[in-house]
Amino acid sequence: MPDVVWRAGAFAVAAIVTFGVSLRLMFGSASSLIDEIRDGYHLDSVEVALLTTGPVVCLGLGASVAPRLARRFSVLSVATVAMAVLAVGTALRAIPGWPVLLLGTMLGGLGIAVANVLGPVLIRLLFPHRIGAMTGLLTALICVSAGIASGITPPLTRIVGDSWRVGLGAWAIPALVAAAAMAVLTVGRARGLRREALAAPEGPVPVPPALSVGLDARMRWAITGFMGIQSLLAYATVAWLPTIYRDRGVSADKAGLIFAVLSVASIVTALGVPVLATRMRSQRGLAVAVVVLATAGILGVLSTGTWGAWPCAVLIGLGQGGALSLALVLMNLRTASAAEATALSAFAQTVGYLLAATGPIMMGVLHSITDGWSVPLIALAATMVPLALCGVVAGHPGSHDRSAPTLVPPVPAIPQAGTGAAGTPDAPIHSNGARPNP
């Protein structure tokens, strides 16, 4: 394979790395400094809930915009702008003032919302023959980024003169790097880079309405429910797990490290589950397995106090990483083209993140009512039942399995611009990257 192909492929992987790692830094950095933010701006419980839940609502509302943008512009150019918006929003948090902090957080949430929808689509377009592995990589980066920010932000604030505002704003730098990497990939097509080395189309993706995607309502809602409830678990733990342990007497640094352990543990299943899922006709067993892991971790947090923090964080991390990666890969396994994947991704994330926003609110309200964390944790564990049911339905392919039964060659074919690998315009891509024989 020509050197330009390998160089382009390596740069595409690097771009996905910077893209993925930027998607949760804003959330993780704030979770370990909730007490400092609350005291610094004299916030009440409603305002704290707005800070932790508002961005998740933005994820749901902003996800509906992504298909419209993808219909008008190229996916890479939209991803570039989304990362730039995230960088600006994150940087604004360094400016003193509660309204500015809230504005920056919401703006960053909108950037993440669009990028979230485009993530599975970028994988499908750039790496059609490596969907499982690259979905795992993207998911692992998303999972670990929140933990990285949660663990690093407290000591970072001390390095910059005990300024937690600067500590929050500093996480704009990775998003800016991601925007630059996506911009290079976008401009690269003018030099023939993408045409020669990547599988992405040159123009906008003709995204159909979500309800016209070739899935029945039961499958569509099962994937959406699985995406939403696993996101509810993720954002509930991002928002409150460090606070739970701080209320039990753990320092801010240690609480951040506990969440960092959770994020690092999620890498294992985030990388492994998509690879297994693309090799299996039914993903039901995987769905149940990751839900069991997460449930065991939540019940451990409920019953073990501080001594069980580390193993419980590992269990929750394994469950979360596997659930998120499975949700993302199912969007490709159950659709027949990048356009359908974009539509299903937008639908599942619009509804799913609006559902997920109830998680931090639910736990916060129950904590205020009961003045403890037992009832909120029991309620969170109860949500794992519908998560498992959605996974069982979404994991059963039935007549909706879009994966090709043949093995995929290790080196992808290089399509000409505007044609499929089979030499026909717009030949549909199967879930594992293979195209049908002409």
Walk me through what this model shows:
- The chain is mostly helical.
- It is built from 19 helices and no strands.
- It has helices at residues 3-21, 25-31, 34-41, 45-63, 66-72, 75-92, 98-126, 131-159, 164-169, 172-188, 193-197, 217-247, 252-279, 284-304, 309-333, 338-356, 358-370, 374-382, 384-394.
- Helix 1 runs antiparallel to helix 10, helix 8 runs antiparallel to helix 13 and helix 13 runs parallel beside helix 15.
- The model is unreliable at 189-203 and 399-438 (pLDDT under 50).
Produce a short descriptive summary.
The chain is mainly alpha-helical and 438 residues long. The chain has helices spanning 3-21, 25-31, 34-41, 45-63, 66-72, 75-92, 98-126, 131-159, 164-169, 172-188, 193-197, 217-247, 252-279, 284-304, 309-333, 338-356, 358-370, 374-382, 384-394. It has one domain: Growth Hormone, Chain: A.
